[in-house]
Amino acid sequence: MYTEDDLSNAVREGVVPEATASAFRHYVEKNRSTSIADEEHFRLITGFNDIFVVIAAVLALAALWTLGNTAAPWLGGLFVLVAGWGMAEYFTRIRRMALPSIVFLGACLTGAFFGTLMSLMPVFSQEGPQAPLVAFIVAALVATAHWFRFQVPITLAAGIAAVIGVIMSLLAMTFAFSDTLLKGALFVSGLLVFALALKWDRSDLERQTRRSDVAFWLHLLAAPLLVHPIFSTLAQGDFSIGVTQALITIALYLVIGCVSLVIDRRALMVSALAYVIYVFSNVLNSFGIVDLGTAIIGLVIGTGLLLLSVFWHHVRAGLVNVLPQRLTLQLPPA
């Protein structure tokens, strides 16, 4: 299985002429009645061997974690970190396997974070933010080193998530815990990550290189950071969940949908789905439709999203065409 990134590398190294690669892309787009840029391709699995490697690696990592923890929590974390890094040296740097690379990154960060956290919790107060602060710092440092060594697309998003954890821990140490402060900090973090994701998107508008994969994972991180504070505040408002709240939810979801269409990323819409289903299920429950409420909402929303998927290109083209030209030049072609 070959990806757009592989094809672009082949063109850059002179294996395939640019004209041949472009003709092949046009053929695939015509044959599948779609645009390659609109499909949000990202490398995840290239064959069953990826799954085979992941199963074997998870068994080995779990065993190392258990064996190390019999002596000390930090030792179990260190075992997992070193083993995950060592396996990445072959399966990521040499074999370039996507799914195992993600798992090995997760192993490195999990070993670093939980090894540090579990070691420091007896030292600091278990409910205090000091131990999580140090653990997030260690995880962020490991993610930084992993990025410069392996350049796995998800690493940047994972490292930023660790940095956000550091910021939240510092806020908890500096100020008294406040739900409003937490939501505000998460929303601001989401805006910054979203802006960074758009910057990576602009560097590859045709979405033919690994930079598009990096942007995908950044959008996937930014989406819940932006959506959760808004919809959780709406669901916990002073007024009961009813028609008014449902209408506000529809309006917000339409705005989110338009943004997703314009930037050609579906992560925002997916992240908001759980909140939309929750609000409308409560509305139907208030009207006495208890047993079938979730099923009805699922049918309506699922059908609507399927129709949007079918007409995604046409709807997006209509939206993009009404935007100023200076803005459309920063977006994937419609």
Automatic annotation (TrEMBL):
Amino-acid biosynthesis found in the keyword field: no
Keywords tagged on the record: Membrane, Transmembrane, Transmembrane helix
Superkingdom of the source species: Bacteria
Spans traversing the lipid bilayer: 42-65, 71-91, 103-124, 130-148, 155-178, 184-202, 214-231, 243-263, 270-290, 296-315
Signal peptide limits: none
Protein's name in the database: DUF2157 domain-containing protein
